[in-house]
Amino acid sequence: PGDQEAGELGLAAVPGRQAAFRQALEAAVHYARAVGCPRIHVMAGRVPLGTERAAVAGEMETTFIENLRYTADLLSQEDMIGLLEPINNRITDPRYYLNTPQHAAAILEKVGRPNLKLQLDLFHCQIMDGNLSRNLETYLPLIGHIQIAQVPGRHEPDSPGELNFPYLFELLESLGYSGYVGCEYAPKGDTLEGLGWLQSYWQSRGLQHGGTSKAAK
User: Which residues form the Xylose isomerase-like TIM barrel domain (predicted)?
Assistant: First the structure.
């Protein structure tokens, strides 16, 4: 994430911070290797203070692409995948550079490396674009990780909000998505109690704790 006390939230697209980015990436790889994690979120970063997004967009894209190619080369040696996550600039972070799956897909196409993927957080995607069914269908080949949270509160999937998660989970299954779904939300109360939604979802699908079929027993 860079120097968060100085207002940074990632470095990959920030001009002039290439050396710091590479140092941070090497540290991330070290930790990922130690814990056996094959995916690293490569954070784009924020539009620098005092500058207009449109004025620096070209320079930031050039920096981003250069850093992502470096990332892909490094991660290929470790059999790891780099992930790009669009973060909404309407609620969460007005200055974040990468905001939509369309933008991320365009960057990935320009970089052209198979070990870089899209990290699609449905919370951010709903706020920026909606159209989740079509977006999941469109970008599935690029997706390396999915994250969830209810909109707008960013709480558990069964909390009041805009998203119908049982439908979305079944859609992911029907599309053949076999990766992880990360629960990146703020629990409304106790974390373990808040996971009751998952138990209820498994039961609604005829599954036991852990997602195993009752029929298998």
Answer: 10-200
| Residue carrying structure tokens 């109690």 | 193
Instruction: Tell me the per-residue pLDDT of 37-72, one tens digit each, with 9 for 90 and over.
Output: 999 999 999 999 999 999 999 999 999 999 999 999
| pTM of the model as a whole | 0.92
Residues annotated as catalytic (active site), given as ranges: 85, 184
In the chain, where are the structural domains located? 4-205
List CB contacts of 27: < 8 A, sequence separation 6 or more: none
| Sequence-separated (6 or more) residues with CB below 8 Å from residue 47 | 53, 56, 60, 95, 96, 97
Length reported for the chain: 217
Task: Please check whether residue 52 is in contact with residue 34, taking contact to mean a CB–CB distance below 8 angstroms.
Answer: no
Segments of the chain with pLDDT less than 70: 209-217
Options 3.40.1350.10, 3.20.20.150, 1.10.260.40, 3.40.630.30; which CATH number does 4-205 get? Answer: 3.20.20.150
Residue in the block written with tokens 């600039």: 89
Report the helix count and the strand count for the chain, using DSSP H and E: 8, 5
